[in-house]
Amino acid sequence: MRKVFLSASLISKMDPEKPTKYISDDFELSPNNYQFPLSYLIDENVEEGDKVVIITAVTQTETPMQNYEAYKQEVLNIVKDKKIDIEFVEIKQTIEFDSLTFNQFFKEVANLIQDNDIIFTDITFGMKCYSISMFIALAYATKAGQNIDLDTIIYAQKYSGNREEGITSKIYDLTGLFSLNTLASNARTGQKKDLDNLLDFIID
């Protein structure tokens, strides 16, 4: 069993003078002020003896690659006192792409997920097309694989708050949305009325 932490690297430059402060109504966050949203899930969920895989999609330009190195260092600092097996896997994203690029990304993500994985995902950063492709790859892998658990999927509203006072970003739990996607993918023709009633019951 592996704990897999999947995300894309931040594309824009970080301002060390005005670091982002992450908050959440959905999670009780560590008091440590991390630079990357997924670091909070790593801090909370990595335990002694775990096999951990950090999968990150990285655009091959200077700033995203620098941010990826900062993220790796942050992760290593989080787990430095825990005896774990950790592996970093980079999915290289090109700066030139076409419509098939995102299909290829889907395939790369799906191929990296194994049976019995527990997956934690952050879809905050990167191009929207890559986020959609990642979401679909997770839906495919969890349905086609064996005993794959999508534990948590998050999104951080990156640029909320007042820049003059510092950036505050709220982390949202989108795991329920992923579950609704599972419901949608299992729907059959003619079931819409009954499923609409079910949705009325599930979603207040």
Descriptive keywords:
single chain, 23% strand, CRISPR-associated protein, TM1812 family, alpha/beta, 7 strands, 204 residues, Rossmann fold
Describe this structure in words.
The chain has helices at 37-45, 62-79, 99-112, 128-144, 175-185, 192-202, and strands at residues 3-8, 21-23, 51-59, 85-93, 118-122, 149-157, 168-173. It has one domain (3-173): Rossmann fold (3-Layer(aba) Sandwich), CATH 3.40.50. Strands 2-7-6-5-1-3-4 form a seven-stranded mixed β-sheet, with helices on both faces. The protein is of the alpha/beta class. It has six helices and seven strands; from the N terminus they run ββαβαβαβαββαα. It comes from Megamonas hypermegale. This is CRISPR-associated protein, TM1812 family.
Strand portion:
15-25%
Tally the beta strands. Answer: 7
The number of helical elements comes to: 6
Mean pLDDT: 91
Q: Any idea what the CATH superfamily is called?
A: SSO1389-like
- C-alpha end-to-end distance: 35 Å
Catalogue the unreliable spans: none
In short:
The protein contains 6 helices and 7 strands. The protein is α/β, with parallel strands linked by helices and 204 residues long.
Topology at a glance:
Blueprint: E1 3-8, E2 21-23, H1 37-45, E3 51-59, H2 62-79, E4 85-93, H3 99-112, E5 118-122, H4 128-144, E6 149-157, E7 168-173, H5 175-185, H6 192-202
Parallel strand pairs: 1-3, 1-5, 2-7, 3-4, 5-6
Antiparallel strand pairs: 6-7
